[in-house]
Design goal:
This protein is α+β, with helices and mostly antiparallel strands. It has a domain at about 5-25 and about 370-520 and about 560-630: Rossmann fold (3-Layer(aba) Sandwich), CATH 3.40.50.1820.
């Protein structure tokens, strides 16, 4: 029955307070949560200060900024960084992005470079550091080091002892990549992860353990777990010095312990207690005591929070309002976490484990729209190609003031996440609500290859990027149309970069979507290899094909070689300074549509690279994309939106 309190208006043209400018204002990035006794530390992005990360500390109810401008707490190890700071005993060590140096803060004092002010003034260091652990007895940190001094095609990665005086000494070398050095509570042993090309860490890593000699070097190194087809994550020591870690040997990232030379499962469950290692320093479990772990795990794409009895393996839920928990830390009875939900933007909260009381310390978005304009997604699973089942979050149109005219079904926008080894989550995103509050449904797809659904699902993308992801997006659109939830004549798909590849392939190789938007989309797969950094330089061997077979597969899957098959209206957005996906990758597709008389719009943005960061660029592209769909589908364009030139579009 129609809601008599709402006005009827065409889907796509509803009036919404979630404007493009509101979306462009964005959220404050919150990351890299740490606990040091009762003190809580975290990083917050400062968009108004060039996007730098600053370190905040919460102590005795007061929040203090410890790194004023120009300090930028960020590292570029593996390019994606993470693990840029350590706090222990009231002292903080952090990596400064501008010069790659490690700085120390004692108490409320000013940051001081470990290697001295004179060295810091000499210019950027050739080494980068991340994922610090304190070795107080030896007056040093242990870190992952990336050495660019040789100036070769790729840097050299090692585990490094970084003295409080700034001295550096290699502890472990020989592997292509390292992460997660963890010192035992008594300082006698060091555990770490390593892996080699062509593997990515979610394919296969090794967990090693060594004794720390009297001179601080490592001796008696031995392999504990892992290999080419087992992904190990987050090694941690219990308070009593028992090594724990997460492994996907069962097909799911579960928690294990290594004691007396034997590995035992702590909790066997068809759930994910870890995520893909794109960045350093992530934590999804921590010890409250020797007997109790506090953990988050993902089932069906949704996070859960629980106590884990290390003896029985029993999980006891902890009441909380969140559906995505990105990371957590535990000290005693205090649990700190970064989390969100469909009506909660990412926030930092502390939970008292004694009574489950919760205090929010920081929010990524302070002023949220009225809940009447927010669409709460529901998880959907649906049949896809070759008998598999795909997963997604479905957002129905939602607006407290307006609704569709009787008998009108909404358009559907399908989105494929980036990565592609990643996942869509249900945490509130204003960029999604921009569409749903205007009467356009959204399907955020966790296609085969996404994380959060086990190893077998993650490996569906092995050799199948550009195939499985596309099939699952196509199947999701068909499924919702068959359910009578959306208008099958107004199905659109959008994506950026890797998601742009999915968009272009869906429109070139399938006839389901009626329009599409490509944001700096990959149209030529071969170009990705030429521009990749060390960490991802062999990623395509997993996603597409090993080198000997790659050329033929690249040619078959690259939309640039099938531009003649594009027959639906498209809009392209391209930064003119993009070095990863340069303008010609978009231009060749635009030209193909022009030649064939297919409606096409092309917006270029000066001063933008791979990903749009300027507020006016975000406003311009969002509004242009909206106008494009409205005109393609013959929906009246509301006043105040800018004109968009669409070639070959009648009327």
């Amino acid at each position: 029955m129609p809601d008599i309190s709402k006005q009827a208006a065409p889907c796509g043209a509803w009036t919404s307070p979630i404007s493009a400018a509101v979306v462009a204002a964005g959220a404050t990035p919150l990351s890299q949560l740490l606990l040091d006794g009762a003190d809580v530390y975290w990083l917050a992005g400062r968009a108004s200060e060039g996007g730098r990360n600053t370190l905040l500390r919460r102590r005795a109810g007061q929040t203090m900024e410890l790194t004023p401008a120009p300090f930028n707490v960020r590292t570029r190890v593996h390019e994606y960084g993470g693990g840029a700071l350590l706090a222990a005993g009231g002292t903080v060590w952090f990596s400064h992005f501008a010069d790659n140096r490690v700085y120390r803060i004692d108490g409320d004092g000013a940051p001081v470079a470990l290697d001295g002010a004179a060295a810091a003034a000499a210019g950027p260091a050739a080494t980068r550091h991340a994922d610090f652990v304190l070795d107080a007895a030896r007056a040093r940190l242990v870190s992952v080091r990336e050495d660019h001094a040789a100036g070769g095609a790729y840097p050299v990665n090692t585990l490094c002892a970084l003295g409080f005086d700034g001295s550096e000494a290699v502890l472990v070398e020989g592997n292509d990549f390292y992460s997660s050095p963890r010192l035992s509570p008594d300082g006698s042993q060091l555990a770490w992860l390593c892996w080699d090309h062509p593997r990515m860490p979610w394919q296969g890593t090794e967990l090693w353990l060594a004794d720390v000699g009297a001179d601080g070097t490592l001796i008696n190194g031995r392999l504990v777990a892992g290999g080419a087809d087992e992904s190990i994550c987050q090694p941690e020591w219990s308070p009593a010095g028992i090594l724990h870690f997460v492994s996907d040997r069962s097909g799911w990232w579960n928690i294990y312990r290594f004691a007396h030379g034997v590995t035992h499962a702590v909790c066997e469950r068809a759930a994910e207690f870890a995520g893909p290692h794109w960045t350093f320093g992530n934590a999804m479990y921590g010890f409250r005591s020797e007997r109790e772990i506090v953990c988050t795990y993902i089932e069906d794409g949704v996070s859960h929070l629980a106590r884990l009895d290390t003896a029985s393996g029993a999980l006891t839920p902890i009441d909380n309002p969140y559906q995505e928990i990105k990371e957590l830390r535990v000290v005693g009875d205090t649990l700190a976490l970064l989390a969100g939900a469909p009506t909660i933007a990412l926030e930092l909260a502390c939970i008292d484990l004694r009574d489950a009381s919760r205090e929010v310390l920081a929010r990524s978005i302070e002023d949220l729209p009225d809940v009447g304009y927010l669409s709460v997604p529901r998880s959907v699973s649906y049949p896809s190609a070759d008998g598999r089942v795909a997963h997604a979050f479905y957002y129905a149109p939602q607006n407290r003031d307006q609704e569709a005219p009787k008998g009108e079904l909404p358009p559907l926008m399908v989105i494929g996440h980036g990565g592609p080894t990643s996942m869509a989550t249900s945490t509130l995103k204003l960029a999604t609500q921009f569409w749903t509050s205007r009467g356009i449904a959204v399907l955020d797809v966790n296609y085969g290859g996404s994380t959060g659904f086990g190893r077998a699902y993650r490996d569906l993308l092995r050799g199948q990027w550009g195939v499985v992801d596309v099939e699952d997006c196509v199947a999701g659109a068909r499924y919702l149309a068959d359910q009578g939830l959306v208008d099958r004549e107004r199905l659109v798909i959008r994506g950026g970069s890797a998601g742009g590849l999915t968009t272009l392939c869906a429109l070139a190789f399938h006839d389901v979507f009626k329009a599409g938007a490509s944001y700096y989309g990959v149209s030529d797969l071969a170009g990705l290899d030429a521009d990749s950094h060390k960490f991802e330089s062999r990623y395509n061997e997993y996603l597409i094909a090993p080198k000997p077979q790659a050329a033929a597969v690249y040619a078959a899957r690259s939309p640039v070689n099938h531009a003649d098959k594009l027959a639906r209206p498209m809009i392209f957005f391209q930064g003119l300074d993009d070095k990863v996906v340069p303008p010609p990758q978009s231009e060749v597709m635009v030209d193909a549509l022009r030649v064939r008389g297919v409606p096409v719009a092309y917006l270029t943005l000066a001063g933008e690279g791979h990903g749009f960061r300027k507020a006016d660029s975000i406003v311009r592209t969002l509004e242009a994309e909206l106008v494009f769909y409205l005109r393609v589908f013959g929906i009246p364009v509301p006043a105040g939106l800018p004109p968009v030139e669409i070639e070959h579009l009648a009327g």
